[in-house]
């Protein structure tokens, strides 16, 4: 194996990464048709579903975070978001939510099964992305990146086949991503945090440009038959760690290949992690838990720990405790 590839690791659902990333979860649940309460029409059998922690509706009810960022990329399904700042929203396939948890927030992510006449497959990536020591002290914030607004780069190969690359963060060639929340490590251009979703047609080829020698770089091949790079053939559901300061040419096999591309400059600070809290020392973790027990990171303003919107609710987001509403452009 050439030095250009540091490792190739099979993945079940969790991708263990390196600074500035913490890990990424690739969740897929094949939920059935929904019932009147937006739960599954047919009851789950044992532990059939991975993302089912609600009593009725699948998802993750009210829970706290502090000291890092969650970047949620939805490929299939619908998510209802509520938080302790009084914000809420609904987003769906193709949308991205970027949440900086800062000095503490509670939120819930519920997956209403809005279709009563067909399956409600849920697929998403949630990237746990670290914050700098200074950013861990900032107030939490979030931003919706709507699918209508996320920029795409289309690159043709020698045979005229076109690869579609969604630029979630950073820059590819001259195309910049949408702005990230201001207190994110990814917000500064000099940190070179590039997050791309790459879709390569069968037998097509695309080249990703080099970044800095100090950057972390990973490619997660999550759909397709096989992928070739640097004379290595990789099967799907493998995580590849790559040298960052060289160009990388990817060639899809007999099926369309889909890749999650992650790279960025390390923060370089120590990491102390305990459950949903990520700080720099054990003493800071102890203090964060003590603060959470005392404050709950704000009062939960919603009628339950696992609320949802009505079935007919279109995609939207609120900010400033509901003072400002945002809908994606049609």
Q: How are the secondary structure elements laid out?
A:
Elements: E1 5-10, E2 14-16, E3 21-31, E4 59-65, E5 68-76, E6 78-83, E7 88-92, E8 96-100, E9 105-110, E10 120-130, E11 141-145, E12 152-156, E13 162-169, E14 171-172, E15 175-176, E16 194-200, E17 205-208, E18 216-223, E19 226-229, E20 232-235, E21 238-242, E22 248-252, E23 257-264, E24 272-274, E25 277-279, H1 282-295, E26 316-319, E27 324-326
Antiparallel strand pairs: 1-21, 2-3, 3-10, 4-9, 5-8, 5-10, 6-7, 6-9, 7-26, 8-11, 12-13, 13-16, 14-15, 16-23, 17-22, 18-21, 18-23, 19-20, 19-22, 24-25, 26-27
Description:
There is one protein chain. The chain has 330 residues and is mainly beta. It folds into two domains: 1-11 and 151-269, Jelly Rolls; 21-149 and 284-302, Jelly Rolls (Sandwich). The protein has one helix and 27 strands. It has one helix spanning 282-295, and strands at 5-10, 14-16, 21-31, 59-65, 68-76, 78-83, 88-92, 96-100, 105-110, 120-130, 141-145, 152-156, 162-169, 171-172, 175-176, 194-200, 205-208, 216-223, 226-229, 232-235, 238-242, 248-252, 257-264, 272-274, 277-279, 316-319, 324-326. A seven-stranded antiparallel β-sheet has the order 1-21-18-23-16-13-12, with no helix packed on it. It has a six-stranded antiparallel β-sheet with strand order 2-3-10-5-8-11, with no helix packed on it. The protein has a six-stranded antiparallel β-sheet with strand order 4-9-6-7-26-27, with no helix packed on it. Strand 26 and strand 27 form a beta hairpin. The longest helix is centred in the C-terminal third of the chain and has 14 residues, at 282-295. The protein is globular and about 55 Å long. The mean pLDDT is 96.
